[in-house]
Amino acid sequence: MVKTALIYPPISDPTSGYHSLCCLAGYARQFGFEDIDIIDSNIDAWLYNVTPEQIGTTMQYINERYAQLQALEEPTPIEQMELYYALKVRGMNFARELPAALHTFRDETEFFDYRLYTSAVETVMLWMDALSLKGFPGQFRGFSLATSGFFNIFSSLDMRDTRITGVISEPFADYYRNELIPGIITGGYSLVGISITYVAQIPFALSMAQHIRKSCPEIRIIFGGTAVSDYWKYILNKNDFYAVFDSADACIIGEGESALVSILQAMEHDRPLPASPNIALHPRVQAVSDTSPLEIKYEDICSFPAPAYSKLPWEKYLSPYPFIYYSPSRGCYWNKCTFCDYGLNTDSPTSPWRQYPLDKIMEDLRMLAVTYKYIYFSVDVLSPALLLKLAAAILEEGLDIRWGAEIRLEEYWTPERCDLLHQSGCTAISVGFESGNQRILNLIHKGTKVDRLQETIQMFSEAGIGVQIMGFTGFPTETVDDALSSVHFLQQNSRYWTFGGLGQFVLTKGAIIAKEPERFRIQDIRPFEGEDVAWRLYYSEQEHLLANSSRCGSKELTEAKTSLRTNQFDRPWVGGVDTAHSMFYHDRFGSNILEVISGDNSAAANENEIMELNGHLIEDHYYLPVHKLFNKKSLDNILDASDREGKAVTAQNITELLGQWTSEHSSYPQPKEQQLFVRRDGTLFPFPVPMIEFLRKFEHGLSLTELLEQSGQHEFHTKLWQHCISSRFLRPKRPPAAET
């Protein structure tokens, strides 16, 4: 029997386990391969880093590095960015605050207290900033990774450079060495499969595989997952693909169920790894050099068993309840949108459309509902007719589940049908409305009408179902006025949707737009210079369209899009579309969810409530005013400028670009004392001494009543107290029991 470890690498959503490996393990079990363990190293690595010992080690490193940075007379831009992030995090008592945050996420009562929830999210997000100082400063975007900056994930030169992936992965290197590798050795595994769903996981997965290869050279290593398939699809030279994934014996490209079983069967009989469909063998393990195109096979999904969710470590996730992803279909039944580019398709926007029959879905749900109440149908889209039959069947059987799904805003929907979905447990849906301009919708070939979109969204909302809405601006030929009509559509219907907003259009090579550029009046299509994994494409618009184009975003459009934001946080937290936490809040608060998460902080406090600092104070000496230090915004400006020229920022050119950056200060002044308040979300506030002294009064907790007893300026201090609460400089003091 082949003992197998299937690993989900950092860095991704810590609130729930992803289901890809559960699907593979469940499928392989049908063929007798039951000795399969799932290692969710995404959550394991993060929890390893919040143990008291690791918190202490990390903060010791940051303090030592901070002292070194302070001693520099002329810090470089990257050293300034290190200093900026060190200033943000070094005053936080993570040893106390991180355990409290974990308790909030896992405790039902605290989880639904949005003030406590907000503090918990901001604490762990600030910890990610702290961890970034062991890699590239500011490399994390919450629980994701910047795709470019000091490195570029879409540059094979960067990703094959073990020094770069090693630096990126350094925050988790101790976990690899001290937990993951010893566990693999003692587990006696013959095969390790690493599933990469998101491109943000690629550097960590590559570094992980290098550690495994070095420590366990006899183990077979395979990669798979959506991000690996995308890398294969978009890379310009397949030899460079193998150079990036050099630690692997093979990579599974596309759907992986049959491919994994083929590999397991070959290993069980001591045969070489097979050159089967969807299996890209590394040249070093190929019996005969093969330059023919890889054969891609699509699965008969109706033969799949239910995923093996029990193999996930549910007690470890940052949620009060288990939340599972379940995929009863693959591909898209519409399959016509001109911007769409999913899967390994060559002649259509998405992979072939396949869907479970109703009986199969109900068979799975009966079993799953015993253990899991919250289920998200993780698919491109579900057909309306099936959803309606499914809702009726759930009601008939009395299954007590809560579910969500992505749907198309078809004319099929009526108030009665929406109400049936809600009665069956549907708490929220997500919809791609794409645009509020009919001309753009027609170019997209969305098959929808703006006036009908409004009616459908309203019907779902009035049925008690949260509507999470997604669209974008910057589509070819879209003018600023066209884009503003999308903003106005969302504003006019703001009471009918909860989370979402407008993103930015990105052109990819598999989209119909890229294949028919003349139809969309674009030209000069090419990969960005420096990115040989051509996931995104540079293009130019015809000159007479440039003056009114929405592509670069006028100030008016940018501000209008920003004004749409209803949520404080994005994925994976409450406010992120289709997240576990958003589903829990939709289920608990229904149509009142926005009132709960956007309540007036000052109105919630009373004069006798003990308030404490929602952050920490810093007083120190350093050269530049904090807002003049090179920081994330400075780096983003470099990225934006390069993008406009069709050039990517990579490890190959970042040093030159940083050398061109100049601070507004022509010289470095003598060190001087600056007093800062760092809010829990990491925002730095340089305050005058009187404001610092006022905030200092709340370091250990103080009520307004107690403050006024010591003050001769009652009216002024009351207004300042209210300002500090509304600005989230102060928060209610946590009870001692919650801090343990």
UniProtKB/TrEMBL annotation:
What's a GO cellular component annotated to this UniProt protein?
cytosol
Q: Enumerate the cofactors the protein uses.
A: [4Fe-4S] cluster
The family database entries (Pfam families) matched by this protein are listed as: Radical_SAM
Q: Which SMART domains match?
A: Elp3
Q: Which InterPro entries match?
A: BchE-like, Cobalamin-bd, Elp3/MiaA/NifB-like_rSAM, rSAM, rSAM_horseshoe, rSAM_sf
Q: Where is the B12-binding domain?
A: 130-274
Keywords linked to the UniProt accession: Iron, Iron-sulfur, Metal-binding, S-adenosyl-L-methionine
Give the highest taxon in the source lineage.
Bacteria
Gene3D superfamilies membership: Cobalamin-binding domain (3.40.50.280), tm_1862 like domain (3.80.30.20)
Protein's name in the database: Uncharacterized protein
Task: Describe the location of the Radical SAM core domain by residue ranges.
Answer: 318-555
Q: Name the Gene Ontology molecular function terms of this record.
A: catalytic activity; cobalamin binding; iron-sulfur cluster binding; metal ion binding
Signal peptide residue numbers = none
